[in-house]
Amino acid sequence: MGKWFKGILSKIFAAVLLVSALSSCIDEAQNTPVPFEIENPSEGYAGMSRLFVADDVLYMSWVEQTDSLAVLKYASYDGNIWSTPEVIAEGTDWFVNWADFPQIAINQGNIFAHYLQKSAPDTYAYDIKYKIFNANSQSWSPPQKLHTDSTQSEHGFVDVIPYKDGFMASWLDGRTTVNRPDSLRQMTVRAGIINADGTLGQQWELDERVCDCCATSITETRKGPMVVYRDRSDNEVRDMYAVRLEDSVWSAPRVVFNDNWQIAGCPVNGPAISSNGMTAVGWFTMVDDKPQVKLGTMGTGSWFDEFLVLEDSRAIGRVDVAVDDQANAFALYMTDAGSTANLNLTHVASTGARMTHILSKMSPERASGFPQLVLFKDQVVISYTETDSIGSQINLVSYPFKAYSFEE
């Protein structure tokens, strides 16, 4: 798409969003700031964008596809210009999936990135491969396997955060879904440390039976790293659970909220967690066939104790959340709009006041993936994929969250 055409689209997009924002659901609001589009460096058939902010710089990774070739790239943005995109890895033997995508994280200039590589012809036989960019040598490490087993099974749905001078990752690990009787096959959630030099540190099994294809999410809380995921009980209740690392010991799995959603299969709709003093987790549920998006928060207490229903009937889900240092929570999620979907942003203030805006229309199909948001230079930056009959492209939208003004 030509730069001039994208500029025209940006103006049209802002005008449409202004009308949409003025007519959207607002619980308490005086000002309605208008998002604007950030031109981004992705090209061709692109999607699966992931965002990360470090040292006041925005990083974006994404995948471009040409026939069977998948290329993982990244670039950085200082608020004015993008760096030249760089290739992290590429391959024709990757597992490329709308819900199980590469992640990127940065710690002291070092970069963690991962992708999924097939380990056998079976559809869901693939490994997690990661690479580390060393800020001192200015070079990428050779690819390494994140998990320590060699089973030809499913490994994926990774999330990663900076941890000490390296990284900590969580993922779904299917080593116990193969080579055993069907009654004993179940997905696990695991976590592990990646040292600054790229070597693997300690690893743990966090829960022995979880939902097979709902992504994990990890954050650093006041009391230590926390992983949230969709559990799977013996009678197929699949609610949100979390574990936390305190004093080098992981807690036992504990329910975030008892939705009591009983479903025989995986909904492919995992949770998202964020922490910045206050911790917030957002998720999708569909008890009694009522699709909802919920938000739970944990302030100074020891566990989640405040809960909101952000959408109570039309939710598609695919939730992401972010928290600022003033205990404002932001939730991004999709809702059903007939033949299309709405991309929604809800801002929940520390006072409890909240407002919701429809940011964009988008495809409800799986190819549109999972939208994402981060907080960057007093803005909410949102990444999502637009699809059509010939391919897909990544859109970035910046939203000035500190322009909000809530009535007391």
Q: How much is the average pLDDT?
A: 91
Helix content bin: under 10%
The count of strands amounts to 30
What is the makeup of the main sheet?
5 strands, antiparallel
- Going by CATH, what is the homologous superfamily? Fucose-specific lectin
Q: What report would you give on this structure?
A:
It contains 1 helix and 30 strands. By secondary structure, it is mainly β. It is globular, with a radius of gyration of 20 Å. The N terminus is likely disordered.
Give me the secondary-structure topology.
Blueprint: H1 3-23, E1 36-38, E2 46-54, E3 57-66, E4 69-77, E5 86-91, E6 104-107, E7 110-118, E8 126-134, E9 139-140, E10 144-145, E11 155-163, E12 166-173, E13 187-194, E14 200-210, E15 217-221, E16 224-230, E17 240-246, E18 249-250, E19 254-255, E20 272-276, E21 278-285, E22 292-298, E23 306-311, E24 315-323, E25 329-337, E26 340-348, E27 354-362, E28 372-376, E29 379-388, E30 391-399
Antiparallel strand pairs: 1-30, 2-3, 3-4, 4-5, 6-7, 7-8, 8-9, 8-10, 11-12, 12-13, 13-14, 15-16, 16-17, 17-18, 17-19, 20-21, 21-22, 22-23, 24-25, 25-26, 26-27, 28-29, 29-30
List the main descriptive attributes of the protein structure presented here.
408 residues, Neuraminidase, 5% helix, mainly beta, disordered N terminus, 30 strands, 5-stranded antiparallel sheet
Question: What is the gist of this entry?
Answer:
Helices cover 5% and strands 51% of the residues.
